[in-house]
Design goal:
This protein has 799 residues and is mainly alpha-helical. Helices cover 80% and strands 0% of the residues. Helix 13 runs antiparallel to helix 14 (250-263) and helix 42 (731-744) packs antiparallel against helix 43. The longest helix has 42 residues, at 2-43. The protein is globular, with a radius of gyration of 35 Å.
Length: 799
C-alpha cells in the first residue's frame, strides 16, 4: 500500500512539473513572438509583425497588450475597421488599458462621434492623468465642441509633460489656426521643426497653413524639403506635383513626377502618377504614348498594363483595350493578373452585348477559382438580367461569405430581393451597406425609401437624420426631408428645411425653389410666386422655377402677369426657347391661335429638335378641327426630332382613334427601326401586332419582340408580354407574367381585363369574374371593354 502511494505521489509531481515546463515554454514562445513583432513593427514590416502578434494571440487570446500591438499593426496597414474592432475588444475586457481607449477615442473623433470620443478620453485620463496622447485627444474633443479655452488647457498640460511631442504641437497649431492666430501657429511649427528636423507631420501641417495663406513659394519649398528627407517615398513627389498643379505650374509638376521616375526607376506608382497627370492635364493620347514604351520595357508591370487598357477604353480604342487585356491573359494564364484580366474582359464583353464570350471567360475563372468574387458578381449580374433570381442570389451570397462588407454586392443583392418582391430582405442588405459605408448618402436615401414604402416613417426619418448629422449640407438629404414634410403637410417644417438649403447654398436657386413648391402645395400661391421669382433671380435660366411660376399665375387666372413675366425673360434671354413655348401655351389656353403659333414657331426656330412645340402646334390645329394639318405637323416633328416617342405616340393615338391601324403599325415599325433597344418602341410594336395584325406569324414575331419585356418591372410591358402569350395559348406562362403585371399595378383596368380573360379561359370563373368586374367598374374606356362586359356576364353564369 505504501509503495502505491509513493508511485502516485511521484506521478503527481511529474505531472505538475510537466505542466510547469509547458507553461514556461508557452510563456517563452509568447515573449519571443512579442519581441519579434515589436522589432518588425519598428522596422516597418507590418505584415510580418501582424503574423508575430497573431502567434502571441494564438497562445494567449487574452493577452491584451498583444492584441493592442496587433491593432496598431492593422492601423499602420490602413485596415482601420479591423483595428477599431481590436481596440474595442481590449476596452471591453481590460479596464486598465489606457492606450486602447485613446485609440478608440481618436477614431471616434475622426468619425465625428464627439461624445463617445470624450467618454474614451475621460476614462483614459482617469487612469493616467498625464498621458500625452489622451490629453491631446481631449483637446480635440474640446475643439470639436468649440471650447477653445479647455482645448488650450489640455494641450498645454500635454506640452508641459512632453514639450517636443509632435501630436501636441500639431494640436496647438490647429487651435491657433482656428482662433485666427495663424502667425503664432507658423512660429510654433517652425520652432518645432528646428528641434525635430526630420518630422514629416510638422512640415506637412506648415505646408497646409502656407497654402491657405497663399504663401506659395514657402509651401513649395517645404514640400521639396520633405522629398529630401525621404527621397524613397513616392507620395512626397506626388504631393509636390499636386501643389504645383494647384498653383498652375504644370510644367514644373510634370518635371517633379519625371524626377520621381528617375530616382525611383523600379517604382510603378511613380510611373502611374505621371500617367495620371498626363491624362488629366495633357491628353489621353499623350498619356497612352507615354505608357506604351514603359509597358514594353516592363512586361511584368501588370498594374500599368491594366491602366493602359482602361486608358484605351476611355479613348474609344476598344479593340486595343481588348488586345491589351488578352496579352495579360496570355502572359499570366490563370495567375492572379490573368484572372483579373479575364474578369475585366468579361465585364467589357457584357457591356458590349457579347454575352457568350463573357460567360465563357467567367466559366474559366470559376473553374480555376470557384470563389472568385469578381466572376461570381458578374455571373450574378447576368442571372439578374435574365431574371434568374435564385441563381443571382446564390452568386451574390457566395461573394458575401468571403467579403461580407462588399458594398456593391450588398446593393446588388438588395436589388435582387426587391425584384423578387422581398422588401424586408432588401432592407436588411441595405442596412448592411450603411454599416459598412456609413458615409454612402445614396445608400442611406435608398434605405429611407424602402423604409417609407414599408410604412416605417420613423426609421426613414432616422436614416435622413443620420445623413444630415454626418453632412448637414447634404442637398439630397435635405431635399428628401423636404419632400417628406410636404407629403405629411407639415408646412412650417418644410419651409424650415427649405431655409436650411438657402443658408447652406446661398448662391443656388434650389432652396428658394423648394420653398416655392412648399407654398404651392399649401395653397399659398402669392408666397409661391415670390419664392419662384427669388429662385429665378439666383438662376435666371432655370427651367423648373419659370415653368412653375407660369403654372401658378395660370392657377390664379392671372394670364396677363404670366405673359408679362415671360416677355421679361425673353427680353433678357432672346434665345429662351422654353419661355417661347410657355408663352405659346398661355395664348393657346386663351384660343389666341395666331399668337400661340407664332410663339411655338419661334421656339422651334431656336430649338428645332425639341418635341414639345410640335406637340403644341398640333394641338392648336386639333382644337381648330384641322386634323390633316395636325398630322402634317406631327409627321414633320417626328422627322426633325429623329423619332421623339412623345410625337410618335400622339400621332399613333390619332390614327388609332380613326381606325387607321395600318398607319399606326407603320409608325411603330419606323420607331422600332430607329430605336430597337427602346423598351417603349418594342412594347408599342409588339402590342399592336398582337392586337391589330393578329396572324400566327405576327403573333410569333410579337412574342419574340416581347421577350426582353418579361424582365421589366413596368406593369404595362409585362402585360403586353403576358397578353401575347395568352393569345398564343401559352396559358401557364401568360398567367405567370400577367400576375406580375397585376402585382405591380393592381388597379389597372387593362391588367385586370387581361388576367380576367385568362382565368375565364382556364375555367376559374370566380377569379375571372373578380378581375373583369374590377376592369368594368373602373369606368375606363379601354379597347376590349365590350368583350370584358360580355365575358363577365358569362363568368357570373358559370361559363
Amino acid at each position: 500500500m505504501k509503495r502505491k502511494k509513493t508511485i502516485l505521489k511521484n506521478l503527481g509531481i511529474a505531472v505538475l512539473s510537466a505542466g510547469l515546463v509547458a507553461c514556461n515554454g508557452a510563456d517563452e514562445r509568447k515573449a519571443k513572438y512579442m519581441e519579434e513583432g515589436k522589432q518588425l513593427f519598428q522596422a516597418g514590416d507590418y505584415e510580418k509583425a501582424q503574423l508575430a502578434f497573431k502567434n502571441v494571440l494564438q497562445i494567449d487570446p487574452k493577452n491584451w497588450e498583444g492584441r493592442f500591438q496587433m491593432a496598431e499593426t492593422l492601423s499602420k496597414q490602413g485596415k482601420i475597421e479591423n483595428a477599431f474592432k481590436e481596440y474595442n475588444t481590449i476596452v471591453a475586457n481590460d479596464e486598465h488599458h489606457v492606450m486602447a481607449r485613446v485609440r478608440v477615442g481618436q477614431l471616434l473623433l475622426l468619425n465625428r462621434a464627439v461624445d463617445d470620443a470624450e467618454k474614451m478620453a475621460t476614462e483614459a485620463l482617469a487612469k493616467e492623468a498625464d498621458n500625452v496622447e489622451a490629453l491631446v485627444l481631449m483637446a480635440g474633443v474640446h475643439m470639436a465642441k468649440n471650447n477653445s479655452d479647455a482645448a488650450i488647457a489640455s494641450v498645454e498640460k500635454a506640452l508641459q509633460k512632453s514639450p517636443d511631442d509632435v501630436s501636441a504641437t500639431l494640436m496647438m497649431a490647429s487651435i491657433n489656426v482656428k482662433n485666427n492666430k495663424v502667425e503664432k501657429a507658423i512660429s510654433l511649427l517652425k520652432q518645432s521643426i528646428e528641434k525635430k528636423s526630420d518630422s514629416i507631420p510638422l512640415r506637412t501641417m506648415l505646408v497646409g497653413i502656407y497654402a491657405r495663406n497663399k504663401q506659395n513659394a514657402e509651401a513649395e519649398e517645404l514640400l521639396a524639403s520633405i522629398i529630401q528627407l525621404q527621397p524613397e517615398e513616392v507620395q512626397h513627389y506626388k504631393n509636390l506635383a499636386l501643389y504645383q498643379v494647384g498653383t498652375n505650374q504644370l510644367d514644373k509638376a510634370e518635371a517633379t513626377l519625371r524626377d520621381a521616375i528617375r530616382k525611383l526607376p523600379d517604382n510603378e506608382a511613380a510611373e502611374s502618377n505621371l500617367i495620371d497627370f498626363l491624362v488629366e492635364k495633357r491628353s489621353l493620347e499623350v498619356a497612352i504614348a507615354e505608357l506604351l514604351p514603359i509597358v514594353e520595357q516592363k512586361p511584368e508591370a501588370y498594374a500599368l498594363k491594366f491602366k493602359l487598357a482602361s486608358l484605351q477604353l476611355a479613348n474609344k480604342q476598344a479593340d486595343k483595350a481588348e488586345g491589351t487585356l488578352k496579352q495579360i491573359v496570355e502572359q499570366d494564364k490563370l495567375g492572379p493578373n490573368g484572372i483579373s484580366a479575364r474578369n475585366k474582359l468579361s465585364a467589357f464583353y457584357a457591356a458590349n452585348r457579347r454575352g457568350d464570350e463573357a460567360r465563357a471567360l467567367i466559366k474559366d475563372v470559376l473553374e480555376a477559382n470557384p470563389r472568385d468574387a469578381e466572376a461570381l458578381t458578374l455571373r450574378g449580374q447576368f442571372a439578374l438580367a435574365e431574371n434568374k433570381i435564385p441563381e443571382a442570389i446564390g452568386d451574390f451570397r457566395s461573394v458575401l461569405v468571403d467579403q461580407p462588407n462588399n458594398v456593391n454586392v450588398l446593393k446588388l443583392l438588395a436589388a435582387t430581393h426587391l425584384r423578387n418582391n422581398e422588401p424586408e430582405l432588401a432592407r436588411e442588405n441595405m442596412e448592411k451597406v450603411i454599416a459598412a459605408a456609413p458615409a454612402d448618402e445614396t445608400a442611406r436615401l435608398d434605405l429611407a425609401g424602402l423604409q417609407l414604402k414599408a410604412g416605417h416613417e420613423d426609421q426613414a426619418r432616422q436614416q435622413i437624420a443620420e445623413l444630415l448629422k454626418a453632412n448637414p449640407k447634404s442637398q439630397k438629404g435635405l431635399e428628401t426631408l423636404f419632400r417628406l414634410e410636404v407629403a405629411k403637410k407639415q408646412w412650417d417644417k418644410a419651409q424650415d428645411v427649405a431655409k436650411q438649403v438657402q443658408q447652406a447654398f446661398p448662391d443656388d436657386a434650389a432652396g428658394f425653389y423648394m420653398s416655392a413648391l412648399g407654398y404651392q402645395a399649401e395653397g399659398k400661391l402669392d408666397a409661391a410666386i415670390d419664392a419662384f421669382k427669388q429662385a429665378l433671380l439666383k438662376k435666371p435660366d432655370a427651367i423648373e422655377p419659370l415653368t412653375e411660376l407660369v403654372k401658378t399665375y395660370m392657377a390664379q387666372k392671372q394670364e396677363a402677369k404670366a405673359i408679362a413675366e415671360l416677355q421679361q425673360v425673353i427680353k433678357r434671354h432672346p434665345d429662351h426657347f422654353i419661355a417661347y413655348n410657355l408663352l405659346g401655351g398661355i395664348h393657346l389656353s386663351q384660343k389666341n391661335f395666331a399668337e400661340a403659333q407664332k410663339a411655338f414657331n419661334k421656339s422651334l426656330e431656336i430649338k428645332p429638335d425639341w418635341f414639345s412645340p410640335y406637340r403644341n402646334l398640333a394641338l392648336a390645329e386639333l382644337v381648330q378641327k384641322n386634323k390633316a394639318e395636325a398630322v402634317k405637323i406631327y409627321t414633320q416633328g417626328i422627322e426633325k426630332t429623329k423619332g421623339a416617342m412623345e410625337l410618335v405616340e400622339d400621332l399613333a393615338r390619332l390614327h388609332h382613334s380613326a381606325g387607321e391601324h395600318d398607319k399606326v403599325l407603320a409608325l411603330y415599325e419606323d420607331s422600332y427601326k430607329r430605336y430597337p433597344n427602346s423598351a417603349v418602341a418594342v412594347n408599342n410594336l409588339a402590342s399592336y401586332l398582337s392586337d391589330y395584325a393578329e396572324t400566327p406569324e405576327n403573333l410569333e414575331r410579337a412574342a419574340k419582340l416581347a421577350e426582353p419585356l418579361v424582365k421589366s418591372k413596368n406593369p404595362s410591358f409585362l402585360d403586353t408580354a403576358g397578353w401575347i402569350a395568352y393569345k398564343q395559348g401559352k396559358l401557364d406562362y401568360a398567367k405567370e407574367i400577367l400576375a406580375k403585371a397585376l402585382e405591380a399595378d393592381a388597379a389597372s383596368p387593362i391588367n385586370n381585363y387581361h388576367i380576367g380573360m385568362l382565368y375565364f379561359k382556364q375555367n376559374d370563373m370566380a377569379k375571372a369574374a373578380e378581375h373583369l368586374q374590377k376592369a368594368v367598374d373602373s369606368k375606363a374606356n379601354f379597347d376590349g371593354l365590350d368583350t370584358a362586359k360580355q365575358t363577365l356576364e358569362k363568368a357570373k353564369q358559370g361559363g
